[in-house]
Amino acid sequence: MNDSELDTLACAAGAALAGRGWCMATAESCTGGWIAEAVTAISGSSAWFDRGFVTYSNAAKIDMLGVSPATLTAHGAVSETTALEMVAGALERSLADIAVAVSGIAGPSGGTPDKPVGLVCLAWATRNVPARALTLRFAGDRYAVRRQTVLRALQGIVELASPAD
Fold it and tell me: Domain span at residue 141?
């Protein structure tokens, strides 16, 4: 797939990470590994990408990332609380200095009045800064929701990895 916007953003993430000597990890649900695919499409990414966790099911979130079953019961897979536990698990289970986690409802089915299609929770964490989470609602079909999620995830990596002005 040729997507110049994604390629440009993945390159920017790589440059920011390499500039700090950092490595990243991903914890993905609704994007199914697309963030990891976008960054590993960049030549030289082995210098700044450690690993990706594709945790589409709740069982995978628990087994691979250590998400609490109680969190999933109380808040659901699509929640900032779950995304924060996912990103913490990615950092704990990798050599990465920074991680991003995403969980959402890409559609076209699966939405509810409380959690409509397009709702996505993202979280970012580094080893030296507290994690932060964000909930967004993206418009469009399944492809568009997933693509916008990948873009926003990478934007967050660039923001956190870029040196402060």
Answer: 4-161
